[in-house]
Write a structure and sequence with these properties.
Blueprint: E1 3-6, H1 8-18, H2 20-37, E2 43-44, E3 49-53, E4 59-68, E5 72-80, H3 84-88, E6 93-101, E7 107-112, H4 114-132, E8 139-143, H5 147-157, E9 164-168, H6 172-181, E10 191-194, H7 197-203, E11 206-209, E12 231-234, H8 247-251, E13 254-257, H9 260-266, H10 281-286, H11 288-291, E14 299-302, H12 307-324, E15 328-330
Parallel strand pairs: 1-7, 8-9, 8-11, 9-10, 11-12, 12-14, 13-14
Antiparallel strand pairs: 1-15, 2-4, 3-4, 4-5, 5-6, 6-7
């Protein structure tokens, strides 16, 4: 009864072997394929829950479970602490994923999912944008240029022939460092410019918002000057009361949540009545041809982060790891030689 442990070195080995572009492409396609066949009989996925707090600093620790019926449970623990980069030199989002066998309850695998969270968030935006944004989109706007923005750019660059990327962050040093941080990506011929918020709004065919705006401090921009057919991937809302987009914009847009039960509590959808909300990600993918008509309209993907996305990406990385022989098996569980004697393991 051993647990497969994937260290950061194992994840790096997988990425180096597979390549960043193929890994992103495979993630986008895996999420798309999984949405096409998803049904609630095969999976049980409740909205995430956890602890939101303001002391000693604003933050949260949440659990995001997903169970494949009769098979296994994937559980992701995720922390959001916006002061991490400046005060501790750590990412705003730290996360760990684990899988459990539903026959015995044994912890079968454990891996860091800080990278995986950014990867699947970018890929999810690409899945939605491929349906809702104009296929001719060439101008990407980034509002909030932290860690999540890099995978947003990467994923969208795999779907669209992007020419220009306009970047804005409330911290100018973050905007100015974006191009350097994006260097691992294959972005030849793409112009990346740190600019004002107004320039991002006016120049973009697709906008990604990934900010750490405080609860009640939104929106991060107003419903003015946007391109008529702009598509927006709203990534930053993950708290009740924390929103990035103006209500007027949501009212006149097709708003598609990744996971409705969660988005109405934590996402942009918390500003709307249920009848104002469009299809979720699964419905969008399953009826893709029917929603292409919105490519010339204003659309929003309300991306709060869905545990099903994590389930798919954890298994994608695990498959790569198995093929490459990555990861090591360790004994974490206290398994006794006599299952009715909790002290029996001491005799081993």
């Amino acid at each position: 009864m051993k647990t497969k442990l994937y260290s950061i070195g194992d994840i790096a080995e997988i990425i180096i072997h597979v390549g960043l572009d193929k890994l992103m492409d495979d993630t986008i396609e895996s999420l798309t394929a999984a949405c096409l066949v998803f049904n609630e009989t095969d999976y049980s996925i409740p909205a995430r829950d956890g602890f939101n707090y303001t002391k000693p600093e604003t933050g949260l620790l949440e659990w995001m479970p997903a169970m494949k019926t009769g098979d296994e449970v994937m559980l992701k623990l995720v922390g959001y602490h916006p002061n991490n980069p400046d005060r501790r030199g750590l990412p705003t989002i730290l996360s760990t994923a684990m899988t459990f066998d539903t026959q015995s309850g044994h912890l079968s695998a454990l891996m860091d999912s800080t990278f995986l969270t950014a990867l699947r968030t970018g890929a999810s935006s690409a899945v939605a944008s491929r349906i809702l944004a104009s296929p001719e989109s060439q101008n990407l706007g980034i509002i909030g240029a932290g860690a999540q923005s890099i995978t947003q750019l990467h994923a969208l660059s795999r779907i669209f022939d992007l020419k220009n990327v306009a970047v804005y962050d409330i911290d100018e040093s973050v905007s100015n460092s974006f191009q350097e941080r994006a260097k691992p990506l294959n972005l030849q011929g793409m112009q990346i410019t740190a600019c004002s918020l107004e320039q991002v709004i006016k120049s973009s065919d697709i906008i990604c918002t990934a900010t750490s705006v405080e609860i009640g401090a939104g929106p991060v921009f107003f419903d003015s000057g946007l391109s008529p057919g702009v598509h927006i991937n709203a990534v930053g809302s993950d708290f009740p009361g924390k929103t990035e987009l103006p209500y007027a914009l949501l009212q006149r847009s097709l708003v598609c949540p990744d996971f409705l039960a969660q988005a109405i509590k934590e996402g942009e959808c918390q500003q709307l009545e249920k009848e104002q909300i469009g299809p979720d990600l699964v419905a969008l993918v399953k009826a893709e041809s029917g929603y292409r008509a919105y490519q010339n309209s204003t659309t929003v993907f309300d991306s709060t982060g869905w545990a099903f996305e994590d389930y798919i990406v954890v298994h994608l990385l695990a498959r790569y790891g198995q093929q490459l022989g990555c990861g090591r098996e360790i004994e974490l569980s206290c398994i006794s030689t006599d299952p009715r004697n909790p002290y029996a393991f001491l005799q081993r």
